[in-house]
């Protein structure tokens, strides 16, 4: 019996272009049945080979699947023993080249061999996403085999976050600076390590999502002004709070209640009878609801969950984020402000109302993988027993 233990050294969340490091140990636990009388060859356990790779599985509904099935599997996965053992539905979107860990491994009782698997997540790969129309799932596949035995695989799920195109573009521009290289060399100064493109991208992402000047929006309907909404910034990271304020002092129409939802818009384009058609799904994650009748001011605090996927776009799907507002208004004279200020005022049993909706696009970006890993629990140790 051989136990295979795989441990992710830096958590289970990674950014596109980041290097994944996984420690893979093969051990032969000693058993009580081992005796001195056994032959030398019976004591050892052996494996013919072991390999590892990262691949992204894409799952779609039946209509989109007809179009995506035309794409063949990548040769780096389909032409290997790991590809032959894959029985999952969908198709391979991204597959890295398999790396051989060893060939012909022999372990004596109590012996353990450990290997470090390093692989860079392709920068152009889609992020991990579980939508209603399209799903992207990432795994590290570790395969091994005994002689004349079937291939055994250990699948380690990981999560990949996208890096915004703006940050990657700015990072590339910053990396081309050569001011320090042209400066005179000083042998007494410590050599300063250059920042990687990934570090510069995270810094640029921090600058994009920093607090900006407030944006004001006057919300009106056919009867007049409903409220003035203030959003302090249009770009956010995962785990942040969306904060805004409502000002009803400028209103000419009574607002009874307001609801704000954080929604993502999932859009795909498929070919039906050689004609392209769009499918759109709206998914709501968090909601803020408040009865604001008689209020002059109120605020909005809407948390962004860590498990959602930031905005991205691939050949199959485009994901956008927005704030969806629902205002319930009334033009009834029983709700005029002088009546509300009276101490003995009672609300009417019935009032005529109208509901108006409004959507405000926002930009949602990734955050540091450590922040996501702390908020979303994931298993970093996986085991496989080969008998």
Automatic annotation (TrEMBL):
Chain ranges passing through the membrane = none
Cellular component annotations (GO), alphabetically ordered: cytosol; Golgi membrane; Ric1-Rgp1 guanyl-nucleotide exchange factor complex
GO biological processes: retrograde transport, endosome to Golgi
Q: State the source organism's domain of life.
A: Eukaryota
Q: What is this protein called?
A: Retrograde Golgi transport protein RGP1 homolog-like Protein
- Recorded source organism is Tribolium castaneum (Red flour beetle)
The gene from which this protein is expressed is AUGUSTUS-3.0.2_09939
């Amino acid at each position: 019996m051989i136990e295979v233990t795989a441990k992710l050294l830096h958590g289970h969340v990674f950014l596109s272009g980041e290097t994944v490091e996984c420690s893979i140990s093969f051990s032969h636990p000693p058993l009580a049945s081992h005796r001195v009388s056994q032959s030398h060859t019976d004591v050892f356990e052996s494996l013919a080979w072991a390999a590892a790779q990262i691949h992204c599985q894409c799952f779609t509904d039946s209509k989109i699947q007809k179009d995506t099935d035309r794409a063949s599997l990548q040769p780096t996965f389909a032409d290997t023993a790991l590809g032959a053992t894959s029985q999952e539905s969908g198709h391979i979107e991204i597959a890295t080249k398999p790396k051989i860990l060893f060939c012909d491994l022999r372990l004596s009782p109590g012996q353990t061999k450990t290997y470090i698997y390093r692989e860079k997540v392709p920068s152009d790969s889609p992020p991990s996403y579980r939508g209603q129309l399209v799903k992207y799932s990432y795994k590290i596949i570790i395969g091994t085999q005994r002689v004349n035995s079937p291939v055994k695989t250990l699948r380690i799920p990981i999560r990949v976050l996208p890096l915004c195109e703006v940050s990657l573009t700015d990072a590339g521009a910053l990396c081309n600076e050569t001011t320090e290289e042209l400066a005179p060399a000083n042998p007494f100064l410590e050599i300063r390590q250059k920042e990687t493109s990934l570090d510069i991208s995270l810094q640029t992402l921090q600058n994009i999502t920093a607090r900006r000047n407030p944006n004001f929006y006057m919300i009106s309907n056919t009867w007049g002004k409903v409220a003035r909404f203030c959003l302090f910034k249009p770009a956010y990271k995962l785990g942040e709070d969306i904060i805004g304020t409502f000002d009803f002092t400028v209103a000419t129409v009574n607002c009874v209640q307001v609801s704000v939802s954080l929604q993502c818009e999932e859009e795909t384009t498929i070919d039906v009878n050689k004609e392209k058609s769009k499918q759109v799904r709206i998914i709501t994650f968090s909601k803020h609801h408040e009865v604001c009748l008689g209020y002059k001011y109120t605020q909005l605090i809407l948390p962004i969950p860590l498990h959602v996927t930031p905005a991205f776009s691939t050949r199959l799907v485009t994901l956008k984020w927005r704030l969806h507002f629902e205002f319930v208004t009334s033009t009834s004279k029983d709700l005029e402000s002088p009546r509300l200020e009276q101490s003995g005022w009672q609300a009417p049993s019935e009032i005529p109302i109208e509901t108006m909706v409004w959507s405000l696009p926002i930009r949602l970006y990734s955050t540091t993988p450590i922040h996501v890993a702390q908020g979303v629990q994931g298993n970093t140790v996986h085991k496989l027993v080969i008998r």
